[in-house]
Amino acid sequence: MSQSDFQHNKEIILRDYLALERTRLANERTLFSYIRTALYLTLGGIAFMEMEDFKSIKWLAPICFILSVVILLTGIIKYFLMKRRLKKFYATSHSLKTHIEP
Fold this sequence. Notes:
The protein has one domain. The protein is built from 2 helices and no strands. By secondary structure, the chain is mainly alpha-helical. The longest helix is centred in the C-terminal third of the chain and has 41 residues. The relative contact order is 0.17.
């Protein structure tokens, strides 16, 4: 088990469920930030391509496009990894709760 895996040994209370929900929402917000950054880099790449007076910096356009794709893929991968970890934690906490309650 890696150090970044979530663990719990006791019953989950309302405060813990709310913290998990905040974490889930933060995960979505972070994905949107990655998407927004990728879109800005794409727009920057288009702007560099369209510059006629500054032909010496047109080489920045492909770099912006490549970085845009890398950032977008990184965000999507991180989102789904965190989503899977949270889902696993939810399932474990639910099974703990059902075993504890009569």
